[in-house]
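> example.struct
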């Protein structure tokens, strides 16, 4: 058995998820990577990874983790930063509206127990990620939509806010001049935030929050709040999250696919690449016209990211450093 294969197998069975002893490593075939002999591979934690250039959100999450907080708190409070950031026109307050001028938000969250909560198509509430957490923790359900979700928010003490900022209103009014309905996400910039974190105890949680596709049909929901689409976490294996054209992510159940590929021994990077491949290789794939990007982390704290086109980046907090990194991508020419 080659060492690489051995380590992958160990990961799949859970062995690779904890300290690997030198005696196990030395059972492996010699492959030149002798630095591993006698060494101890420790899982890296805490770790935070989030879609796009989201330094403040990741820093907020990282601080929580560094202070011994849970991965669940980290992803919730990290995502709230972007929800409150009015300059980000694809998340929370200031998000671009649907074609009727209504800003509707989608969000979901998963904890290390495999619990999930989501809200879909919510108006007038900025911090939908916290609302999704309330659905997960305080109701017997996993999804609340529209008016029901909003009513639940007020019951839980959330504030009613106008989410349509002047800038987003102006952009919508400009769009209305032609109002050509082309549900195509521009390739350069999306900013939906998907965030994954591992806390000091090694527990993984994830969150994803968005205003969805700009000028979408009223009632349209994408991948972001849907389990296995925009987000999936399995505490034994790792987590994944998506950004980009939600319809395409949903059709391939992208985040679930990535976690299942990691379960089979793929690295987070390999898993993200295979998930993108699924989309671009579809017989009717129109991938030149849309973007999808994935991030992933495994239980060891190894991360991966891949997108269809250039311009996808992610923020990564690891070993005390928070950096924005350009993702590798499929369409090179
Ligand atoms: N994935 C989001 C959606 O389809 C949009 C985005 O990531 O920009 O709603």
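> example.seq
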């Amino acid at each position: 058995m080659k060492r690489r294969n051995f380590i992958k197998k160990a990961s799949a069975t859970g062995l690779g998820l904890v300290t690997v002893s030198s005696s196990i490593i030395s059972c492996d075939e010699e492959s030149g990577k002798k630095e591993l002999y006698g060494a101890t591979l420790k899982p890296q934690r805490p770790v935070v990874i989030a879609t796009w250039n989201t330094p403040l959100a990741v820093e907020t999450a990282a601080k929580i983790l560094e202070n011994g907080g849970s991965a669940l708190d980290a992803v919730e409070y990290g995502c709230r930063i972007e929800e409150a950031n009015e300059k980000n026109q694809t998340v929370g307050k200031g998000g671009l509206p649907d074609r009727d001028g209504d800003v509707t938000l989608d969000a979901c969250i998963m904890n290390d127990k495999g619990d999930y909560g989501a809200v879909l198509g919510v108006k007038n509430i900025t911090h939908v990620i916290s609302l999704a957490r309330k659905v997960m923790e305080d109701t017997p359900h996993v999804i609340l939509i529209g008016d029901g979700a909003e009513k639940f928010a007020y019951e839980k003490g959330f504030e009613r806010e106008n989410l349509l900022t002047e800038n987003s209103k102006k952009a919508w009014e400009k769009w209305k001049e032609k109002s050509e309905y082309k549900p195509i996400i521009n390739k350069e910039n999306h900013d939906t935030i998907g965030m994954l974190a591992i806390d000091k105890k090694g527990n993984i949680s994830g969150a994803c929050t968005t205003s969805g596709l700009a000028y979408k049909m009223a009632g349209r929901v994408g991948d972001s709040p849907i389990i296995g689409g925009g987000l999936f976490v399995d505490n034994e294996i790792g987590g994944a999250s998506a950004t980009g054209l939600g319809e395409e992510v949903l059709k391939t159940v992208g985040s679930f696919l990535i976690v299942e590929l990691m379960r089979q021994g793929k690295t987070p990077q390999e898993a993200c690449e295979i998930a993108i491949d699924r989309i671009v290789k579809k017989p009717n794939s129109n991938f030149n016209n849309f973007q999808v990007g994935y991030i992933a982390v495994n239980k060891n704290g190894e991360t991966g990211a891949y997108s269809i086109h250039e311009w996808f980046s992610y923020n990564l907090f690891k070993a005390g450093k928070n950096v924005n990194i350009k993702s590798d991508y499929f369409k090179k020419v």
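> remarks
The chain has one domain: 47-329.
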